[in-house]
């Protein structure tokens, strides 16, 4: 079994640094760079895209560094522009199915983090920090370099060190922000990686670097696992510090580990941990319960349920269940105690399977007039392609169309059927 240990304790991680190290492990790094230069064909406004892997000295060591030269006329790009460019590139080049999924997941991780930080839907964000083609260079380059190593097969494992975040402030399109950047923090929130502050006052982890690392799902260890070394590659980024090496080290080798020949189910990729909060009340009015549910709309929760029940002494009551991110459980427990006056809240962490979903814009024709609405499409990446699980019109859109047409929502749903059927026939 092959294994890659990502030693970032003396560097942090950025997309270009990670790519430079991985190119050092590949037999044909220039072939990867040559393909990546073709990205300018897939993004409007890019007139120059030059990439070169060079050797530089850091702390007396010769290490890899990626030199990137870009000239583009656009100062920001939408998620659709970047996604479409990524898809076209993946279709034109030789990437495995698992590699394609990884690249899509990394880009979606960046979109979701930026959207959550700025309080927007993904399709409405303008990615000033991801405006340049170098975001796609990093994602597609790292994906290809790992794919060449067999990094997306069952017989490959990832391990990494603790990740230093740096400190101080950084200048962004939104002004001066603290390090780590808000999007970087959001990305690490959903991972099991161990991050540490410092050791210097500078940004050591970029959102792209964080998204790449998190989606590899490495196991954290202070030193590399016992392995037979095949190759070691070191790289540095664009920054140079006086008392900090800024050198990333990748240790690539083979480990003796029994291989499970059974192919894992695709749904294993959709497993995530959630916390369930639960309390029972029998002395709270319907008005207070309704207000409590409304206050939860401003909280980061997945779901809330109120279930009628019978409590001690045959009193009618309610069981309140809240599904949330494990990191938010105590804040939500405190809110529940305050709002409801309950004396205790049970909580436990469990696992759930939560599949992919996306919003698709479409139109339906009613009485010779077109109306725009969105469909929520849920789907799973299967070995033989994408399996659509459900297609559902957004209820708020249905309500708006109902007001405009005087048709009932049930009637409008009949006219949505043909559009919904189209998504079940797509495989993308």
Tally of alpha and pi helices: 11
Mean pLDDT: 89
Strand content: 25-35%
Quaternary form: single chain
**Helix amount:** 25-40%
The backbone outline, from C-alpha atoms, is globular
Sheet with most strands: 5 strands, mixed
Radius of gyration: 25 Å
**Order of secondary-structure elements:** EHHEEHHHEEEEHEHEEEEHEEHEEEEHH
Low-confidence parts, pLDDT < 50 over ≥5 residues? Answer: none
For the secondary structure, the number of strands is: 18
CA-CA gap between termini: 31 Å
Question: Which structural class do the helices and strands define?
Answer: alpha+beta
Q: Into how many domains do the coordinates divide?
A: 3
Trace the largest sheet across and list its strands. Answer: 9-4-1-11-10
Structure description:
It is a single chain. With 428 residues, the chain is an alpha+beta fold. It has three domains: 2-262, no CATH class; 268-353, Transcriptional regulatory protein pf0864 domain like (Alpha-Beta Plaits); 356-424, Ubiquitin-like (UB roll) (Roll), CATH 3.10.20. The chain is built from eleven helices and 18 strands. It has helices at 15-23, 29-36, 79-92, 97-118, 134-148, 182-189, 207-216, 286-295, 329-340, 395-405, 409-424, and strands at residues 2-7, 46-58, 61-72, 156-160, 163-164, 169-172, 175-178, 195-196, 219-220, 228-236, 247-254, 271-281, 301-310, 316-324, 346-353, 356-366, 369-382, 385-393. A five-stranded mixed β-sheet has the order 9-4-1-11-10, covered by helices on one side. A four-stranded antiparallel β-sheet has the order 13-14-12-15, with helices on one face. Strands 16-17-18 form a three-stranded antiparallel β-sheet, with helices on both faces. A hairpin with a 5-residue loop joins β13 and β14 (316-324). The longest helix has 22 residues, at 97-118. The model has no long low-confidence stretch (mean pLDDT 89).
